[in-house]
Automatic annotation (TrEMBL):
The gene is kup. This is Probable potassium transport system protein Kup. Signal peptide: none annotated. It comes from Collinsella tanakaei YIT 12063. Residues 57-501 form the K+ potassium transporter integral membrane domain. Residues 35-47 have a biased composition (Basic and acidic residues).
Length: 711
C-alpha cells in the first residue's frame, strides 16, 4: 500500500517499516548498521532477544505475571460458590476441583504458551497479531481468527483491572476495623477502586521498564507470600497432594456430586486467563526471562491453591464461616493479624495484574496497526528496549472502559461472572494460528495435528462451559470484542479497497512538468519549499496522489519540492538521512532514518537537511527581501501538505466497498493529529483531500435545449 495520507502513515512512529537499507546514491546516504537482518516471519528472533539477567527477571515478574498471579484471590472463591458454599465441601470436591485447576494451568499455560507459543516470536514480539504476521502467507482466511482473537483479548483486558482491583479492595471487609469503616455497601469499594484504576493508567507513560523495576520486588514477595501461606496448610494435610492425579479431576467432573456440572470448568479457567497476556508481553521482557521465571511462579500458584483446599477441608461445615456472605477462602485462611498486610499486598498485586494486560494491549495494538487492522497512532518508547512502548490513545480508552466496568458491575462477584468468556475465544484462535506455525514453519506436521485437535477441543470445552456467563455479565466483554472487531474489519476492508486503487508513478517522468511549474509565474508561489510526507520507501517512485495534488488539483508552484519518508529503525538512537536529487536542484527525495528513541521532530530535522544541501550548493539560495533579521538566511519558507483520500459520490464501487471506505475514514478522524506526531505543530500545515481514484459510473447524456425553452 502506498498511501500518502499522513493520518494513515503506516507505523512511522512504531518502528515496523522493515529493514530496508538507504540508497547508496544521494548527497548524504548513510547505510544502516543494523545487525537485525533476520528474515521477517520465520519465527527466529534470536537477534532481538533480551538477555536473561536478574534485573530482567525482576522486570518479568513485575510485568508479565500480574494477571495469572492474582488468580488465587478469586478462583477458589468461584469454585466454592458454584458448589453451594462451605457447607457442601467434601474431599471429593476439593481434590477434584483442585485437580482440574492444576491441569488447566499445566496444559494451557505451561504446555501451550510457555513451551510452544513463546517459540513463535516475530522479531522478538509475541501475541496473536505477531503470530498471524508469521503465518498469514498460508491462507488469506487466517486474518479472521487473528482479528477475532485480538479483539477478544483487548476486550478482556478492559475487564481485568476492574475485577482484580475490586476483589482486592473487597478484602478490606475481612478486617473488622475496615469493615466498620467502609460498611457492607459497595459505594466506598467502588470509589477506592476507581481511584486505584485511575492512578494505574496515569503512570503508564513512565514505561514498562521503570514500572517493572518498581513492581518486580513486590510481585516477587507476592509469590513468596502465596507459596509460604499455602505450604503451611499443605504440610498440615499432605493428602491434598492427591489433587495432582488428573483422574481425580475427571471423576469429579462427571460425578453427580458436582453441583456445578460441566460449568465448573468456567471457574477453573480463571486460573489461566493471564496466559495469553504472558505471550503478548514477550516483546517487553524477552522469551528467556519468561522461561527462567515461570517455574517459580507456577510452584507458588499451585501451593496457594492447594493450601486453600486444605483449609477448606479443615473448616468444612463451619457454621460461622457459612454465615459470611461471599466467602473468600484466600483471605479467611489468614490469621486476623495477617489480613491487613495481605489486603495491602493483594491490592498491589492486583494493580500489577492490570499492568500485564495494559502492556500486552500496547503490543497488540502496535502489531495491529502494522498489519493495517487499526489506524496509525502515536507511540512512545520510554525505555531502551524497542518492545517496551506506550500508546496514549489505547491507554485512555482502556482507562475509560475500566471505569465503565466498575460503575456497571459494582462488585467482584458480578465481574467474575463476566470474566474469562472472551479470552477462551482468543485461545482457540491462537491454537488455530499455532497449527500453521508448527505445520508449515516448524515442519512438525503430525505434532501440529495432535496439537490443534487436542487444544481446540479442550478450549472449546472451556468456551462452552463459560457460555453461561453471557447473561451474567459476559455480554459486556462480547460486545466490547464485537466493537473492536468491527473497527478492525472496517479498517482492513477500507485499506483493501485503497490498495486496489493505489498507483506508484516514477518521479523522473514528471521532473519536466515540475520544472515548468516552478518557473510558471502565472501561478502564485505557494511556498519556497513544499513538503509532502509519504510512507513509500522506494526512492524512485511516488504515490500518484502526491503528483495529482501538485499538478492537477490546482497546480502548486514552489521553488523546491520535498518528498519525505520517516523510517523507524531497530536501534534506539539511529539519526541519519539520505537524499536523492534526481540531478536537479528543485526535487528532493528525503529518507529520515530515526531510532525508535528519537523524537520525530520532522520540521527540525528537515531544516538540518535543507541547511546541509544549501551549504553544499545542491539547493540554490532562496533569497527574500523581508525578514526580522538584518541579514536574511538563504533558506525560504516551508509548507507541509497532508493528503487525505476521499471517495467521490460518482465513484463506481459497490455499496459494500463504499461502506468500508466510509467507516475507515470515520475511524481515522478519531486516531489523532499526525501534525503533532511529526512535530509540525508550529509549522505551516494544510490538509488537502484527493479523490480515491476509481472508475466513475456512466451517466445518461443530457439534452441541450434553447435558453428560452423549458423542458
Amino acid at each position: 500500500m502506498t498511501q500518502s495520507t499522513a493520518s494513515d502513515q503506516k507505523e512511522h512512529t512504531s518502528g515496523t517499516q522493515g529493514t530496508r537499507k538507504p540508497d547508496d546514491h544521494g548527497a548524504a546516504a548513510i547505510k544502516r548498521k543494523s545487525k537485525n537482518e533476520s528474515k521477517h516471519g520465520d519465527g527466529d528472533d534470536k537477534s532481538h532477544n533480551i538477555p536473561v539477567s536478574i534485573a530482567a527477571m525482576l522486570v518479568t515478574l513485575g510485568v508479565v505475571y500480574g494477571d495469572i498471579g492474582t488468580s488465587p484471590m478469586y478462583v477458589t472463591k468461584a469454585l466454592l460458590a458454584g458448589q453451594g458454599g462451605i457447607m457442601q465441601v467434601t474431599e471429593e470436591f476439593i481434590l477434584g476441583a483442585l485437580s482440574l485447576v492444576i491441569w488447566t494451568v499445566t496444559l494451557l499455560t505451561t504446555v501451550k504458551y510457555v513451551l510452544i507459543s513463546l517459540k513463535a516470536g516475530n522479531h522478538g514480539e509475541g501475541g496473536i497479531f505477531a503470530l498471524y504476521s508469521i503465518v498469514r502467507k498460508y491462507g488469506k482466511w487466517l486474518i479472521i481468527p487473528a482479528m477475532l482473537g485480538g479483539s477478544a483479548l483487548l476486550a478482556d483486558g478492559i475487564l481485568t483491572p476492574a475485577v482484580t482491583i475490586t476483589t482486592a479492595v473487597e478484602g478490606l471487609r475481612t478486617i473488622p476495623a475496615m469493615r466498620s469503616l467502609i460498611g457492607d455497601g459497595q459505594t466506598n469499594v467502588v470509589i477506592i477502586t476507581l481511584i486505584i484504576v485511575s492512578l494505574l493508567f496515569a503512570v503508564q507513560r513512565a514505561g514498562t521498564s521503570k514500572i517493572g523495576r518498581a513492581f518486580g520486588p513486590v510481585m516477587t514477595f507476592w509469590f513468596l507470600f502465596l507459596g509460604a501461606n499455602g505450604l503451611v496448610y499443605v504440610l498440615g494435610n499432605p493428602a491434598i497432594l492427591l489433587a495432582f492425579n488428573p483422574l481425580r479431576g475427571i471423576a469429579f467432573l462427571l460425578s453427580p456430586n458436582n453441583h456445578a456440572g460441566v460449568m465448573i470448568l468456567g471457574s477453573c479457567f480463571l486460573a489461566t486467563t493471564g496466559a495469553e497476556a504472558l505471550y503478548s508481553d514477550m516483546g517487553h521482557v524477552g522469551r528467556g526471562n519468561i522461561y527462567a521465571t515461570w517455574p517459580f511462579v507456577k510452584i507458588c500458584l499451585l501451593l496457594s491453591y492447594l493450601g486453600q483446599g486444605a483449609w477448606l477441608l479443615a473448616n468444612a461445615g463451619n457454621p460461622e464461616l457459612a454465615a459470611i456472605q461471599d466467602l473468600n477462602p484466600f483471605f479467611e485462611m489468614l490469621g486476623e493479624g495477617m489480613r491487613p498486610f495481605a489486603v495491602g499486598l493483594s491490592t498491589c498485586a492486583a494493580i500489577i495484574a492490570s499492568q500485564a494486560l495494559v502492556t500486552g494491549a500496547f503490543s497488540l495494538v502496535s502489531e495491529a496497526s502494522r498489519l493495517d487492522l487499526m489506524p496509525h497512532m502515536q507511540i512512545f518508547y520510554p525505555a531502551e528496549t524497542k518492545g517496551q512502548l506506550y500508546i496514549p490513545m489505547v491507554n485512555n480508552v482502556m482507562w475509560v472502559g475500566c471505569i465503565a466496568v466498575v460503575l456497571l458491575f459494582q462488585s467482584s462477584a458480578h465481574m467474575e461472572a463476566a470474566y474469562g468468556l472472551a479470552i477462551t475465544i482468543t485461545m482457540i484462535c491462537t491454537s488455530i494460528l499455532l497449527f500453521f506455525f508448527l505445520h508449515n514453519i516448524r515442519k512438525r506436521k503430525i505434532a501440529a495435528w495432535i496439537f490443534v485437535i487436542f487444544f481446540v477441543a479442550l478450549e472449546g470445552f472451556f468456551f462452552g462451559a463459560s457460555l453461561t456467563k453471557f447473561f451474567h455479565g459476559g455480554y459486556f466483554t462480547i460486545l466490547m470484542a464485537a466493537l473492536i472487531m468491527g473497527i478492525m474489519v472496517s479498517w482492513y476492508n477500507g485499506t483493501s479497497v485503497e490498495r486496489r486503487q493505489a498507483t506508484l508513478l516514477p518521479i523522473r517522468s514528471y521532473l519536466g512538468q515540475l520544472d515548468s511549474l516552478r518557473n510558471d509565474e502565472t501561478y502564485e508561489l505557494m511556498s519556497d519549499n513544499l513538503v509532502y510526507l509519504t510512507n513509500e520507501t522506494n526512492t524512485n517512485y511516488l504515490d500518484r496522489d502526491i503528483l495529482y495534488s501538485i499538478l492537477d488539483k490546482h497546480p502548486k508552484r514552489a521553488r523546491a519540492y520535498w518528498f519525505l519518508n520517516v523510517e523507524v529503525m531497530d536501534e534506539p538512537h539511529t539519526f541519519s538521512y539520505s537524499v536523492e536529487t534526481f540531478g536537479t536542484d528543485y526535487v528532493f527525495r528525503v529518507h529520515l532514518y530515526l531510532g525508535y528513541k528519537v523524537n520525530q521532530r520532522v520540521n527540525a530535522y528537515l531544516r538540518q537537511v535543507v541547511s546541509d544541501l544549501s551549504a553544499s550548493g545542491e539547493l540554490p539560495p532562496q533569497t527574500h527581501e523581508y525578514s526580522v533579521y538584518k541579514k536574511p538566511g538563504p533558506i525560504g519558507s516551508f509548507r507541509f501538505c497532508m493528503l487525505r483520500k476521499m471517495l467521490a459520490p460518482e465513484s463506481d464501487v459497490d455499496s459494500r466497498e463504499r461502506s468500508a471506505i466510509a467507516l475507515k475514514y470515520t475511524i481515522r478522524r478519531f486516531a489523532g493529529s499526525p501534525a503533532r506526531w511529526f512535530g509540525l505543530e508550529s509549522s505551516s500545515v494544510f490538509y488537502e483531500y484527493v479523490p480515491l481514484f476509481t472508475k466513475f459510473k456512466e451517466v445518461d447524456r443530457m439534452t441541450r435545449i434553447d435558453p428560452n425553452t423549458r423542458p
